[in-house]
Design brief:
Layout: H1 13-25, H2 28-45, E1 53-59, E2 65-71, H3 72-86, H4 93-103, H5 114-123, H6 129-138, H7 148-161, H8 168-179, H9 191-215, H10 220-225, H11 228-232, H12 235-272, H13 294-323, H14 326-339, H15 347-350, H16 354-357, H17 360-363, E3 370-372, E4 375-377, H18 379-403
Helix pairs in contact: 1-12, 2-9, 2-12, 9-12, 9-13, 9-14, 12-13, 12-18, 13-14, 13-18
Amino acid sequence: MALDLEGNGMKNFGTLYWYELKKLLKRKLAWIMVLVIAAFMAYTARPVSNSGGANFSLTDRAGNTISKYVSVAEQRERISEGQQSISGQVMDERFFQNVREASNGNGLYIIKEHLEQESYFYLVDSSYYDPYDMIAYLAELDPAETSAEDFYRNRQETIERQYGGRTDGEIAYLQNMEAQVEKPFVYRYISGYQDILADVFGLSNVIPLVAAVCLCGVFSEEKRTRADALILSSRQGRFPQYLAKMLAGGTVILAATLLVIGADAAAVLLTQGWAGFDAALQLENLNSSLPISIGQAMLMMLGLLLLYGLLCGGVTMLFSAFTQNTVAALAAPVLLMICQAWLRLDMQAAEYLPNQLFNTIPSLHNRNLVNLFGRYLNNLQFGFVLYGGLAVVLLALCWLGWRRGDHPCAG
Protein backbone atom coordinates (compact mmCIF):
# COMPACT_ATOMS: atom_id res chain seq x y z
CA MET A 1 0.00 0.00 0.00
CA ALA A 2 1.54 3.28 -1.07
CA LEU A 3 1.40 6.10 1.43
CA ASP A 4 1.67 9.80 0.57
CA LEU A 5 4.13 11.06 3.17
CA GLU A 6 5.19 14.32 1.45
CA GLY A 7 2.86 16.86 3.00
CA ASN A 8 -0.51 15.17 2.96
CA GLY A 9 0.12 13.21 6.17
CA MET A 10 -2.43 15.07 8.26
CA LYS A 11 -4.94 15.23 5.40
CA ASN A 12 -4.71 11.47 5.02
CA PHE A 13 -4.48 10.77 8.73
CA GLY A 14 -7.45 8.39 8.67
CA THR A 15 -5.69 6.31 6.01
CA LEU A 16 -2.46 6.29 8.02
CA TYR A 17 -4.29 5.24 11.17
CA TRP A 18 -6.15 2.43 9.41
CA TYR A 19 -2.90 1.27 7.79
CA GLU A 20 -1.11 1.09 11.17
CA LEU A 21 -4.10 -0.56 12.83
CA LYS A 22 -4.30 -3.25 10.16
CA LYS A 23 -0.60 -4.02 10.59
CA LEU A 24 -1.21 -4.72 14.28
CA LEU A 25 -4.44 -6.63 13.72
CA LYS A 26 -2.72 -8.90 11.18
CA ARG A 27 -0.17 -10.13 13.73
CA LYS A 28 -1.86 -13.52 14.14
CA LEU A 29 0.62 -14.93 16.65
CA ALA A 30 0.10 -11.94 18.96
CA TRP A 31 -3.68 -12.33 18.89
CA ILE A 32 -3.41 -16.08 19.46
CA MET A 33 -1.36 -15.28 22.58
CA VAL A 34 -3.98 -12.76 23.74
CA LEU A 35 -6.76 -15.31 23.24
CA VAL A 36 -4.77 -17.94 25.15
CA ILE A 37 -4.27 -15.50 28.04
CA ALA A 38 -7.97 -14.57 27.99
CA ALA A 39 -8.97 -18.24 27.99
CA PHE A 40 -6.57 -18.94 30.86
CA MET A 41 -7.98 -16.09 32.95
CA ALA A 42 -11.54 -17.23 32.22
CA TYR A 43 -10.66 -20.80 33.21
CA THR A 44 -8.97 -19.81 36.48
CA ALA A 45 -11.87 -17.45 37.33
CA ARG A 46 -14.14 -20.48 37.69
CA PRO A 47 -14.33 -22.38 41.00
CA VAL A 48 -10.91 -23.94 41.54
CA SER A 49 -12.05 -27.43 42.39
CA ASN A 50 -15.17 -29.42 43.08
CA SER A 51 -13.27 -32.46 44.32
CA GLY A 52 -12.73 -33.40 47.94
CA GLY A 53 -14.83 -32.63 50.97
CA ALA A 54 -15.11 -33.39 54.68
CA ASN A 55 -17.23 -35.22 57.23
CA PHE A 56 -19.36 -33.00 59.43
CA SER A 57 -21.25 -34.08 62.54
CA LEU A 58 -23.49 -32.30 65.02
CA THR A 59 -25.20 -33.30 68.23
CA ASP A 60 -28.53 -31.89 69.38
CA ARG A 61 -29.59 -31.16 72.96
CA ALA A 62 -31.32 -34.54 73.21
CA GLY A 63 -28.03 -36.33 72.45
CA ASN A 64 -28.87 -37.34 68.89
CA THR A 65 -26.00 -36.99 66.39
CA ILE A 66 -26.27 -36.28 62.70
CA SER A 67 -23.30 -36.85 60.41
CA LYS A 68 -22.75 -36.39 56.70
CA TYR A 69 -19.97 -36.14 54.14
CA VAL A 70 -20.22 -32.77 52.37
CA SER A 71 -18.24 -32.30 49.16
CA VAL A 72 -16.51 -29.03 48.27
CA ALA A 73 -19.11 -28.40 45.57
CA GLU A 74 -21.93 -28.96 48.07
CA GLN A 75 -20.25 -26.66 50.59
CA ARG A 76 -20.02 -23.92 47.99
CA GLU A 77 -23.64 -24.47 46.99
CA ARG A 78 -24.86 -24.35 50.61
CA ILE A 79 -23.03 -21.08 51.27
CA SER A 80 -24.42 -19.54 48.08
CA GLU A 81 -27.97 -20.65 48.94
CA GLY A 82 -27.61 -19.20 52.41
CA GLN A 83 -26.41 -15.85 51.12
CA GLN A 84 -29.24 -15.60 48.62
CA SER A 85 -31.86 -16.60 51.20
CA ILE A 86 -31.20 -13.49 53.34
CA SER A 87 -30.23 -11.09 50.55
CA GLY A 88 -32.09 -7.81 51.01
CA GLN A 89 -32.33 -7.96 54.81
CA VAL A 90 -31.39 -4.78 56.69
CA MET A 91 -28.48 -5.41 59.05
CA ASP A 92 -30.30 -4.07 62.11
CA GLU A 93 -30.73 -5.53 65.61
CA ARG A 94 -33.15 -8.20 64.41
CA PHE A 95 -30.56 -9.32 61.82
CA PHE A 96 -27.84 -9.59 64.47
CA GLN A 97 -30.21 -11.46 66.78
CA ASN A 98 -30.62 -14.06 64.03
CA VAL A 99 -26.81 -14.32 63.76
CA ARG A 100 -26.52 -14.77 67.53
CA GLU A 101 -29.15 -17.51 67.46
CA ALA A 102 -27.40 -19.29 64.57
CA SER A 103 -24.11 -19.02 66.50
CA ASN A 104 -25.77 -20.88 69.37
CA GLY A 105 -27.39 -23.53 67.21
CA ASN A 106 -30.78 -21.87 67.68
CA GLY A 107 -30.85 -23.49 71.10
CA LEU A 108 -31.31 -26.93 69.52
CA TYR A 109 -27.71 -27.99 68.87
CA ILE A 110 -24.52 -28.05 70.90
CA ILE A 111 -22.07 -25.47 69.52
CA LYS A 112 -18.79 -25.37 71.45
CA GLU A 113 -16.13 -25.02 68.76
CA HIS A 114 -15.63 -23.80 65.21
CA LEU A 115 -16.04 -27.25 63.60
CA GLU A 116 -19.45 -27.67 65.24
CA GLN A 117 -20.42 -24.22 64.01
CA GLU A 118 -19.44 -25.17 60.44
CA SER A 119 -21.36 -28.42 60.81
CA TYR A 120 -24.46 -26.45 61.81
CA PHE A 121 -24.20 -24.24 58.72
CA TYR A 122 -23.60 -27.15 56.34
CA LEU A 123 -26.04 -29.65 57.85
CA VAL A 124 -28.86 -27.52 59.28
CA ASP A 125 -29.09 -23.91 58.08
CA SER A 126 -26.50 -21.95 56.07
CA SER A 127 -28.45 -18.67 56.00
CA TYR A 128 -26.14 -16.69 58.29
CA TYR A 129 -22.83 -18.32 57.38
CA ASP A 130 -21.50 -15.24 55.58
CA PRO A 131 -22.65 -12.67 58.19
CA TYR A 132 -21.07 -14.91 60.85
CA ASP A 133 -17.75 -14.73 58.97
CA MET A 134 -18.08 -10.96 58.52
CA ILE A 135 -18.53 -10.43 62.26
CA ALA A 136 -15.91 -12.96 63.35
CA TYR A 137 -13.14 -12.29 60.84
CA LEU A 138 -13.67 -8.78 59.45
CA ALA A 139 -14.97 -7.09 62.62
CA GLU A 140 -13.08 -9.52 64.91
CA LEU A 141 -16.04 -9.82 67.27
CA ASP A 142 -17.84 -12.81 68.77
CA PRO A 143 -20.93 -13.47 66.59
CA ALA A 144 -22.64 -15.21 69.50
CA GLU A 145 -22.53 -12.00 71.58
CA THR A 146 -22.50 -9.13 69.05
CA SER A 147 -25.42 -6.72 68.76
CA ALA A 148 -26.01 -4.25 65.94
CA GLU A 149 -24.83 -1.44 68.23
CA ASP A 150 -21.61 -3.36 69.03
CA PHE A 151 -20.94 -4.00 65.35
CA TYR A 152 -21.35 -0.43 64.08
CA ARG A 153 -19.61 1.11 67.10
CA ASN A 154 -16.64 -1.25 66.66
CA ARG A 155 -16.44 -0.34 62.97
CA GLN A 156 -16.55 3.39 63.70
CA GLU A 157 -13.84 3.09 66.36
CA THR A 158 -11.64 1.11 63.98
CA ILE A 159 -12.00 3.79 61.30
CA GLU A 160 -11.34 6.68 63.70
CA ARG A 161 -8.15 5.05 64.98
CA GLN A 162 -6.81 5.34 61.44
CA TYR A 163 -7.22 9.14 61.48
CA GLY A 164 -4.11 9.47 63.63
CA GLY A 165 -1.34 11.69 62.22
CA ARG A 166 -3.55 13.34 59.60
CA THR A 167 -4.23 17.03 59.11
CA ASP A 168 -7.57 18.61 60.00
CA GLY A 169 -8.35 18.97 56.30
CA GLU A 170 -7.68 15.30 55.63
CA ILE A 171 -9.77 14.21 58.61
CA ALA A 172 -12.65 16.42 57.47
CA TYR A 173 -12.45 14.88 53.96
CA LEU A 174 -12.44 11.33 55.37
CA GLN A 175 -15.28 12.07 57.78
CA ASN A 176 -17.34 13.51 54.93
CA MET A 177 -16.79 10.34 52.89
CA GLU A 178 -17.76 8.15 55.86
CA ALA A 179 -20.90 10.23 56.46
CA GLN A 180 -22.06 9.34 52.95
CA VAL A 181 -21.86 5.60 53.66
CA GLU A 182 -25.44 4.48 54.28
CA LYS A 183 -26.02 2.65 57.55
CA PRO A 184 -27.35 0.25 58.63
CA PHE A 185 -26.08 -1.83 55.74
CA VAL A 186 -28.41 -3.95 53.66
CA TYR A 187 -27.09 -7.48 53.31
CA ARG A 188 -26.81 -8.59 49.68
CA TYR A 189 -25.55 -11.57 47.73
CA ILE A 190 -22.35 -10.28 46.07
CA SER A 191 -20.26 -13.37 45.31
CA GLY A 192 -19.74 -12.48 41.64
CA TYR A 193 -18.32 -9.03 42.34
CA GLN A 194 -16.23 -10.32 45.25
CA ASP A 195 -14.62 -12.84 42.91
CA ILE A 196 -13.93 -10.25 40.19
CA LEU A 197 -12.27 -7.93 42.72
CA ALA A 198 -10.20 -10.88 43.94
CA ASP A 199 -9.08 -11.49 40.33
CA VAL A 200 -7.88 -7.90 39.75
CA PHE A 201 -4.39 -8.62 41.10
CA GLY A 202 -3.96 -11.62 38.80
CA LEU A 203 -5.17 -9.60 35.83
CA SER A 204 -2.62 -6.88 36.59
CA ASN A 205 0.13 -9.50 36.32
CA VAL A 206 -0.81 -10.61 32.79
CA ILE A 207 -1.53 -7.18 31.29
CA PRO A 208 2.19 -6.33 30.77
CA LEU A 209 2.53 -9.55 28.78
CA VAL A 210 -0.53 -8.64 26.70
CA ALA A 211 0.98 -5.23 25.93
CA ALA A 212 4.33 -6.77 25.05
CA VAL A 213 3.03 -9.32 22.55
CA CYS A 214 0.65 -6.83 20.89
CA LEU A 215 2.94 -3.82 20.50
CA CYS A 216 6.56 -5.00 20.51
CA GLY A 217 6.85 -4.46 16.74
CA VAL A 218 5.14 -1.06 16.41
CA PHE A 219 8.36 0.79 15.55
CA SER A 220 10.89 -1.98 15.07
CA GLU A 221 8.89 -3.50 12.21
CA GLU A 222 9.93 -0.67 9.86
CA LYS A 223 13.59 -1.37 10.51
CA ARG A 224 13.12 -5.06 9.79
CA THR A 225 11.37 -4.31 6.47
CA ARG A 226 13.74 -1.38 5.70
CA ALA A 227 10.78 1.01 5.42
CA ASP A 228 12.28 3.29 8.10
CA ALA A 229 14.55 5.09 5.63
CA LEU A 230 11.59 6.04 3.42
CA ILE A 231 9.43 7.26 6.30
CA LEU A 232 12.16 9.17 8.12
CA SER A 233 13.29 10.91 4.92
CA SER A 234 10.08 12.98 4.96
CA ARG A 235 9.85 15.79 7.47
CA GLN A 236 6.15 16.26 6.73
CA GLY A 237 5.28 12.60 7.02
CA ARG A 238 7.01 11.61 10.23
CA PHE A 239 4.72 13.30 12.77
CA PRO A 240 1.37 12.16 11.26
CA GLN A 241 2.85 8.65 11.00
CA TYR A 242 3.89 8.83 14.67
CA LEU A 243 0.41 9.95 15.72
CA ALA A 244 -1.16 7.16 13.66
CA LYS A 245 1.11 4.61 15.34
CA MET A 246 0.26 5.94 18.81
CA LEU A 247 -3.47 5.91 18.15
CA ALA A 248 -3.39 2.45 16.56
CA GLY A 249 -1.23 1.08 19.37
CA GLY A 250 -3.53 2.59 22.00
CA THR A 251 -6.59 1.16 20.25
CA VAL A 252 -5.10 -2.32 20.10
CA ILE A 253 -3.85 -2.48 23.69
CA LEU A 254 -7.15 -1.19 25.06
CA ALA A 255 -9.06 -3.74 22.98
CA ALA A 256 -6.73 -6.60 24.01
CA THR A 257 -6.85 -5.60 27.69
CA LEU A 258 -10.63 -5.32 27.55
CA LEU A 259 -10.80 -8.78 25.98
CA VAL A 260 -8.77 -10.35 28.81
CA ILE A 261 -10.65 -8.48 31.54
CA GLY A 262 -13.99 -9.24 29.91
CA ALA A 263 -13.24 -12.96 29.65
CA ASP A 264 -12.47 -13.13 33.37
CA ALA A 265 -15.50 -11.05 34.41
CA ALA A 266 -17.87 -12.94 32.12
CA ALA A 267 -16.71 -16.32 33.46
CA VAL A 268 -17.29 -15.15 37.04
CA LEU A 269 -20.69 -13.56 36.48
CA LEU A 270 -21.98 -16.50 34.45
CA THR A 271 -21.08 -18.94 37.25
CA GLN A 272 -21.71 -16.75 40.32
CA GLY A 273 -24.47 -14.48 39.05
CA TRP A 274 -24.55 -10.71 38.68
CA ALA A 275 -26.93 -9.83 41.50
CA GLY A 276 -25.75 -7.26 44.02
CA PHE A 277 -24.16 -4.62 41.80
CA ASP A 278 -25.62 -1.84 43.97
CA ALA A 279 -24.71 -3.48 47.29
CA ALA A 280 -22.56 -1.46 49.71
CA LEU A 281 -18.83 -1.93 49.22
CA GLN A 282 -18.58 -2.36 52.99
CA LEU A 283 -20.09 -5.86 52.73
CA GLU A 284 -16.80 -6.87 51.09
CA ASN A 285 -14.45 -4.33 52.65
CA LEU A 286 -15.97 -3.56 56.04
CA ASN A 287 -13.74 -0.66 57.10
CA SER A 288 -13.72 1.16 53.77
CA SER A 289 -15.13 4.70 53.85
CA LEU A 290 -15.68 4.90 50.10
CA PRO A 291 -19.39 5.76 49.61
CA ILE A 292 -19.76 3.54 46.55
CA SER A 293 -21.33 0.20 45.70
CA ILE A 294 -19.34 -2.95 45.15
CA GLY A 295 -20.28 -2.79 41.47
CA GLN A 296 -18.88 0.73 41.21
CA ALA A 297 -15.71 -0.40 42.99
CA MET A 298 -15.37 -3.22 40.46
CA LEU A 299 -15.77 -0.78 37.54
CA MET A 300 -13.18 1.57 39.04
CA MET A 301 -10.63 -1.22 39.44
CA LEU A 302 -11.28 -2.54 35.93
CA GLY A 303 -11.00 1.02 34.59
CA LEU A 304 -7.63 1.34 36.32
CA LEU A 305 -6.60 -1.95 34.70
CA LEU A 306 -7.46 -0.53 31.26
CA LEU A 307 -5.36 2.53 32.02
CA TYR A 308 -2.58 0.27 33.24
CA GLY A 309 -2.79 -1.58 29.92
CA LEU A 310 -2.28 1.74 28.12
CA LEU A 311 0.67 2.49 30.41
CA CYS A 312 2.25 -0.89 29.67
CA GLY A 313 1.61 -0.25 25.98
CA GLY A 314 3.48 3.05 26.34
CA VAL A 315 6.46 1.26 27.88
CA THR A 316 6.47 -1.32 25.08
CA MET A 317 6.23 1.27 22.30
CA LEU A 318 8.89 3.45 23.93
CA PHE A 319 11.39 0.59 23.94
CA SER A 320 10.37 -0.33 20.41
CA ALA A 321 10.99 3.26 19.26
CA PHE A 322 14.35 3.74 20.98
CA THR A 323 15.90 0.29 20.50
CA GLN A 324 14.29 -0.59 17.16
CA ASN A 325 14.44 -4.12 18.55
CA THR A 326 11.36 -6.32 18.87
CA VAL A 327 12.89 -8.62 21.51
CA ALA A 328 13.85 -5.68 23.75
CA ALA A 329 10.36 -4.20 23.43
CA LEU A 330 8.84 -7.61 24.16
CA ALA A 331 10.83 -8.02 27.37
CA ALA A 332 10.64 -4.44 28.68
CA PRO A 333 7.18 -4.28 30.34
CA VAL A 334 7.51 -7.77 31.81
CA LEU A 335 10.94 -6.96 33.29
CA LEU A 336 9.66 -3.68 34.72
CA MET A 337 6.77 -5.52 36.34
CA ILE A 338 9.21 -7.98 37.93
CA CYS A 339 11.60 -5.22 39.02
CA GLN A 340 8.92 -3.31 40.94
CA ALA A 341 9.38 -5.80 43.77
CA TRP A 342 12.89 -4.38 44.35
CA LEU A 343 11.89 -0.71 44.25
CA ARG A 344 12.41 1.06 47.55
CA LEU A 345 9.91 3.91 47.80
CA ASP A 346 8.43 5.65 50.81
CA MET A 347 5.26 4.01 52.07
CA GLN A 348 2.69 6.22 50.34
CA ALA A 349 4.53 6.29 47.00
CA ALA A 350 4.82 2.50 47.05
CA GLU A 351 1.02 2.24 47.27
CA TYR A 352 0.80 3.27 43.61
CA LEU A 353 2.96 0.42 42.33
CA PRO A 354 0.78 -2.06 40.42
CA ASN A 355 1.46 -4.88 42.89
CA GLN A 356 -0.09 -2.75 45.65
CA LEU A 357 -2.68 -0.59 43.89
CA PHE A 358 -4.32 -3.68 42.40
CA ASN A 359 -4.35 -5.51 45.74
CA THR A 360 -7.99 -4.60 46.27
CA ILE A 361 -8.41 -5.40 49.98
CA PRO A 362 -5.97 -2.70 51.22
CA SER A 363 -6.43 -0.32 48.28
CA LEU A 364 -10.21 -0.02 48.74
CA HIS A 365 -9.92 1.10 52.35
CA ASN A 366 -6.73 3.11 51.94
CA ARG A 367 -7.01 6.48 53.73
CA ASN A 368 -3.89 8.19 52.39
CA LEU A 369 -4.81 11.31 50.43
CA VAL A 370 -3.00 13.41 47.85
CA ASN A 371 -3.49 17.18 47.83
CA LEU A 372 -3.52 18.13 44.16
CA PHE A 373 -3.91 21.87 43.49
CA GLY A 374 -5.82 22.33 46.74
CA ARG A 375 -8.14 19.36 46.23
CA TYR A 376 -7.86 16.07 48.07
CA LEU A 377 -7.85 12.88 46.02
CA ASN A 378 -8.09 9.39 47.48
CA ASN A 379 -5.70 6.69 46.28
CA LEU A 380 -7.97 5.42 43.49
CA GLN A 381 -8.67 8.90 42.14
CA PHE A 382 -4.97 9.77 42.17
CA GLY A 383 -4.22 6.37 40.64
CA PHE A 384 -6.23 7.39 37.56
CA VAL A 385 -4.38 10.73 37.39
CA LEU A 386 -0.96 9.13 37.89
CA TYR A 387 -1.36 6.22 35.47
CA GLY A 388 -3.04 8.43 32.87
CA GLY A 389 -0.31 11.04 33.13
CA LEU A 390 2.48 8.46 32.89
CA ALA A 391 0.82 6.88 29.84
CA VAL A 392 0.67 10.26 28.09
CA VAL A 393 4.33 11.02 28.94
CA LEU A 394 5.50 7.64 27.66
CA LEU A 395 3.55 7.97 24.44
CA ALA A 396 4.96 11.47 23.94
CA LEU A 397 8.51 10.24 24.54
CA CYS A 398 8.01 7.74 21.72
CA TRP A 399 8.27 10.74 19.36
CA LEU A 400 11.88 11.28 20.43
CA GLY A 401 12.73 7.69 19.61
CA TRP A 402 10.76 7.82 16.36
CA ARG A 403 12.42 11.01 15.06
CA ARG A 404 15.93 10.04 16.01
CA GLY A 405 17.40 8.17 13.10
CA ASP A 406 20.69 7.62 11.38
CA HIS A 407 19.36 9.08 8.12
CA PRO A 408 20.69 12.32 6.72
CA CYS A 409 17.27 13.84 6.36
CA ALA A 410 16.12 12.98 9.87
CA GLY A 411 16.28 15.89 12.22
